[in-house]
Amino acid sequence: MTRVFSGVKPTGHLTLGNYLGAMRQWVAVDQHRSDALFCVVDLHALTVDHDPARVRRLSRQAASLLLAAGLDPGLCTVFVQSHVDEHARLSYLLECVATDGEMRRMIQYKEKAARERVRGGSVRLSLLTYPVLMAADILAYGADEVPVGDDQAQHVELARDLAVRFNQRYGHTFVVPRATLPGVAARVMNLQEPASKMGKSDDVGPGIVYLLDEPDVVRKKVMRAVTDSGREVVYDREARPGLANLLEILAACAGGEPAELAGDYDSYGALKKDTAEAVVEVLRPLRERHKELCADPGYVEGVLREGARKARAMARPTVDAAYRAIGLLPPVAETADR
Ligand code: TRP
């Protein structure tokens, strides 16, 4: 069976973009058709300035939201990265296969590091090596497919390169993974800046709908979305990106095709109203389920404990094999007769 691995980073609250662009597909498709692992990648949250209490809180929340969205621990493995030592163990070996030039070429690193330097801050070494840890996340489990947004495609490409290189040098050890990108329609843009993606953000963005926003907050954000000048409702991603984003969100939440939906509206106001309600309805069951899970922390803990146990059992043999292949001595077994 195909193995799928993906991760969410607990650096901010999860958004409608995360849900429509990725999580919904994991729930509806991936967990049923494959042997899938979904990981709260908390180690990755330490690559930038962080507040320990916040990372803890967001990690717990991300795990609950994955379950609230419909990931079923009976079908897939949901776990927290730092609970499984294999990620860090393998990451070091892969650092010995990757080059520094390769790391410095990563677009996300270049952008984030540049931004940090402008602010006069320092850049953590782990921000540079982060794609190697991500490669370890993927390769430890022999994942065939990695469903991610296109901003992560370069990192998955690196994981492929490292797998191929390791296999050539040290003997076949890793499955060579590939990225699977979500459909175009699932790419949700920021309601205030339709040119940029609705990603997680540290600030409370008026253009970002968070999965746990109250219905009235969702309505307000959608009603205030920037639209383009012009009056008639048409679907044109290039010329009318704000409008196109609303039509795509409506289509993703309520069904239909953006271009056809455009024909149903003769005012921006009516489109916004329907879009807001469609988003509220999509998020309603998720918020309700999340509330139930918060009332039962023991359940979530149990899922994560079992998830880590399963994940460890899957990763261990591959990572051990990599340790042997690269030239490290097997640990000397403790003997009983001493
Ligand atoms: N880098 C990803 C992001 O920022 C998160 C991530 C970490 C990930 N490890 C992964 C995604 C492994 C897929 C597979 O969104």
**What average pLDDT do the residues reach?**
93
The structural domain count equals 2
Largest sheet: 3 strands, parallel
Indicate the CATH topology of the largest domain.
Rossmann fold
Q: What is the fourth-level CATH superfamily of the largest domain?
A: HUPs
Radius of gyration: 22 Å
H and E order: EHEHEHHHHEHEHHHHH
Can you identify the CATH class of the largest domain?
Alpha Beta
Count of separate DSSP helical elements:
12
Give the strand order of the largest sheet, numbering strands 1, 2, ... along the chain. Answer: 1-2-3
What share of residues are in beta strands? Answer: 5-15%
Stretches with pLDDT under 50, minimum 5 residues = none
CATH architecture of the largest domain: 3-Layer(aba) Sandwich
Secondary structure tally: strands: 5
Globular, elongated, flat, extended or rod-shaped: what is the shape? globular
Q: Please state the structural category.
A: mainly alpha
What does this molecule look like?
By secondary structure, this protein is mostly helical. The chain folds into 2 domains: 3-181 and 297-326, 3-Layer(aba) Sandwich (Rossmann fold); 215-292, Tyrosyl-Transfer RNA Synthetase, CATH 1.10.240.10. Helix content is 53%, strand content 7%. It contains 12 helices and 5 strands. The protein has helices spanning 16-33, 52-68, 86-95, 100-104, 107-118, 125-139, 153-170, 215-223, 241-254, 258-262, 268-294, 297-325; strands spanning 3-8, 35-40, 77-80, 145-147, 178-180. The strands form 2 sheets. A 3-stranded parallel β-sheet has the order 1-2-3. Strand 1, helix 1 and strand 2 (35-40) form a beta-alpha-beta unit. Helix 3 (86-95) packs across helix 6 (125-139) and helix 3 (86-95) runs parallel beside helix 12 (297-325). It starts with a strand and ends in a 13-residue tail after the last helix. The model has no long low-confidence stretch (mean pLDDT 93).
